[in-house]
Amino acid sequence: MPTYQLKYFNIKGLVEPARWLFALAGQPYKDHRFQEGEWPSVKPTTPCGQAPILVVDGKQIAQSKAVFRYLAKQFGLVGETDMDQARGDMIVDYFEDFTGPLRVIRKEGDPPKKKELMAKFMATLPIYLGNLEKLLKENNDGDGFFVGEKVTWTDVVFVCNTEIHKRFLNPGYLADYPKLEALVQRVEALPAIAEWIKTRPVTEV
């Protein structure tokens, strides 16, 4: 059985979906969180000079989506058919179109520029959420998961990120999208996920 180590900062950030995948699989791993001042010495040893990094039997995998896809395949948390897997990838990639600009806004230090970027983002938000709701409803009328009959990494990536979005946007930002809101509740209620949320280290982000 392979050994796993996940390396990232002491935040949820980009890597939290991987922690959820480990929880769902019941797979032991080392959740290594960089201590203050540690990252500069680790950075040159990583494949891309970025975190997170997944170490599997001593071999490193960088880039968060690559990490998620690898773990999902290892743990059987992908769609059961080629079409479901492709649609799952499509939804995650589309979701990245939504979350990418939001990360830029969060890091913007100039208040007027940040306000301008946020206004543009909020204007497009209904389009993204509407399309995600539509995609969810295309599978079992939206009463299950994004693809197939069981939870996959696609659901995990979406639901896990809503934690941050609720804090950065507003807690009710999914109110007009009942299928998405119900999906969040459904995934967070899964016993392994609920236990992880209850017992994980407390961080601001």
UniProtKB/TrEMBL annotation:
| Keyword rRNA-binding among record annotations | no
Q: Which PANTHER family match?
A: GLUTATHIONE S-TRANSFERASE, HEMATOPOIETIC PROSTAGLANDIN D SYNTHASE
**What lineage does UniProt assign to this protein's organism?**
Eukaryota, Metazoa, Spiralia, Lophotrochozoa, Annelida
User: Some GO term, biological process aspect, for this entry: which one?
Assistant: glutathione metabolic process
Q: What family is it from?
A: Belongs to the GST superfamily.
Protein name in the entry: glutathione transferase
Which InterPro entries would you find in this protein's record? Glutathione-S-Trfase_C-like, Glutathione-S-Trfase_C_sf, Glutathione_S-Trfase, Glutathione_S-Trfase_N, GST_C, GST_superfamily, Thioredoxin-like_sf
Domain annotation GST N-terminal: ranges? 2-79
Catalytic reactions of this protein? RX + glutathione = an S-substituted glutathione + a halide anion + H(+)
The GST C-terminal domain extends over 81-205
Organism of provenance: Capitella teleta (Polychaete worm)
**Which of UniProt's keywords are assigned here?**
Eye lens protein, Transferase
